């Protein structure tokens, strides 16, 4: 009995010591993959480290190694750091197949109108719908509703001067473009007039009778003319 009891105690003690030991790299990588697969937002290194019970430096090292392994093996998964944390993506070259599965054989992409509207908001944010319409020369209400629904832009409070709703891009917008911040947007300076000219145009745009007339006309025709937000093929 003594021998049996002693063996059981030894086995229990060995099991506790094994559980307390730091997990091997392969196990850490597997845990990280599990966490990233169920996460609906980028996962910070600190969160990975806390959940797994390892130092942040080791979590960072394993995330980097896992990302490199995916790249070297040509995996369909792409592990990237987005500025807020690490997240799994499908690799770009396999996007057509992912679209085919999710869209049931059709492709849905932003139209040129939606891309133009998104660009205006990205570079002029926060900006009102009136200002976006004035820059583009057409009513953009329908397109902007679609961009809001897709999570690419969001309301950013009222304009102090006009009380109109301001719009700005979201974190999803940066994530889809693979950017860490708006500062990473490519400069428009080579394509634009001098800064003082831009500021003058911007400050006087809403009061220009031609712009006011254009917006009133486009708003009145909005019921009959609506820009589509996707191209279906």
Automatic annotation (TrEMBL):
It comes from Tomitella cavernea. This is SMC-Scp complex subunit ScpB. Keywords: Cell cycle, Cell division, Chromosome partition, Cytoplasm. The keyword Lipid biosynthesis does not apply. InterPro entries: ScpB_csome_segregation (IPR005234), WH-like_DNA-bd_sf (IPR036388), WH_DNA-bd_sf (IPR036390). Residues 1-23 are annotated as: Disordered.
């Amino acid at each position: 009995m003594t021998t049996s009891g002693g063996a059981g105690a030894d086995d229990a003690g060995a099991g506790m010591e094994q559980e307390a030991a730091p997990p091997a790299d392969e196990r850490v990588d597997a845990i990280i993959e599990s966490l990233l697969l169920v996460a609906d937002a980028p996962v910070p290194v600190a969160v990975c480290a806390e959940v797994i019970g390892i130092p942040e430096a080791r979590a960072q090292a394993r995330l980097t190694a896992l990302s490199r392994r995916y790249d070297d093996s040509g995996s369909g998964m792409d592990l990237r750091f987005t500025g807020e944390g690490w997240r799994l993506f499908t690799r770009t070259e396999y996007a057509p197949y992912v679209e085919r599965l999710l869209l049931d054989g059709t492709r849905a992409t932003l139209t040129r109108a939606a891309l133009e509207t998104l660009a205006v908001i990205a570079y002029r944010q926060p900006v009102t719908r009136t200002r976006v319409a004035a820059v583009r020369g057409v009513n953009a209400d329908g397109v902007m509703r679609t961009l809001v629904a897709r999570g690419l832009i969001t309301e950013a409070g009222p304009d102090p001067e006009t009380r109109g709703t301001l719009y700005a891009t979201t974190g999803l917008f940066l994530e889809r473009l693979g950017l860490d911040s708006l500062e990473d947007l490519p400069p428009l300076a080579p394509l634009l007039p001098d800064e003082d000219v831009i500021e003058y145009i911007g400050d006087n745009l809403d009061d220009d009778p031609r712009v006011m007339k254009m917006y009133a006309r486009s708003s009145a025709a909005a019921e009959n003319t609506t820009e589509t937000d996707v191209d279906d093929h």
